[in-house]
């Protein structure tokens, strides 16, 4: 489990095409400290498994399904990525519960700068709109954010200077894709209410 609090802005140092998958080599001095084979690291909100670890770099295999369903498929050597290690039991939950299982992708539609923050408008796949509510939580490229405005086809988030400086959202422009993970609590509530209405699970 992750919390959506990005630990560092890493970099893709190599991408190897494996046909039905890809192997990424990533640099991240913070997240690789103490890393071992089999550990999990969230890369732009996608939970990946460490295959090899050497120095401040690690490799991870990404299967075709993940490349298709997330924005990892557009990453190339030199791309910057948000990195986070799983949260430790008993640690502070600084963001919200994040699984690292991307529900879909959105596209940055517009950026509106202000004196102390920036409003970013992001497209929302129709099948995810029901899980996104004003002042609720959403994960964008692995970043735990609060929804400012929720529509049927888009939502907005407000970014403080720290988020702009330390994550990929400070670099991305209109037209760029982002990974989205909705609040898992909303999905469980929907399932439970659906079972109650249909009588399933009795």
Question: Summarize this, please?
Answer:
This protein has helices spanning 64-69, 161-166, 184-198, and strands at residues 8-17, 21-27, 40-43, 46-54, 57-63, 80-84, 104-113, 118-123, 137-140, 143-150, 154-159, 177-182.
Are there runs of 5+ residues with pLDDT below 50, and where? none
* Spatial strand order of the main sheet: 1-2-5-4-3-6
> Total strand count, please?
12
User: What does the main sheet amount to?
Assistant: 6 strands, antiparallel, barrel
Total DSSP helices = 3
Q: Helical residue percent?
A: 10-25%
- Report the radius of gyration as a whole number of Å: 17 Å
Secondary structure class reads mainly beta
CA(first)-CA(last) distance: 30 Å
Strand percent estimate: 35-45%
SSE succession? EEEEEHEEEEEEHEH
Structural shape: globular
Question: How would you state the average pLDDT, rounded?
Answer: 91
Give keywords.
202 residues; mainly beta; six-stranded antiparallel beta barrel; six-stranded antiparallel barrel; 12 strands
Q: Layout of helices and strands, plus pairs?
A:
Elements: E1 8-17, E2 21-27, E3 40-43, E4 46-54, E5 57-63, H1 64-69, E6 80-84, E7 104-113, E8 118-123, E9 137-140, E10 143-150, E11 154-159, H2 161-166, E12 177-182, H3 184-198
Antiparallel strand pairs: 1-2, 1-6, 2-5, 3-4, 3-6, 4-5, 7-8, 7-12, 8-11, 9-10, 9-12, 10-11
Task: Report what the structure shows.
By secondary structure, this protein is mainly beta. The protein has three helices and twelve strands. The protein has helices spanning 64-69, 161-166, 184-198; strands spanning 8-17, 21-27, 40-43, 46-54, 57-63, 80-84, 104-113, 118-123, 137-140, 143-150, 154-159, 177-182. A hairpin with a 4-residue loop joins strand 7 and strand 8. The longest helix has 15 residues, at 184-198.
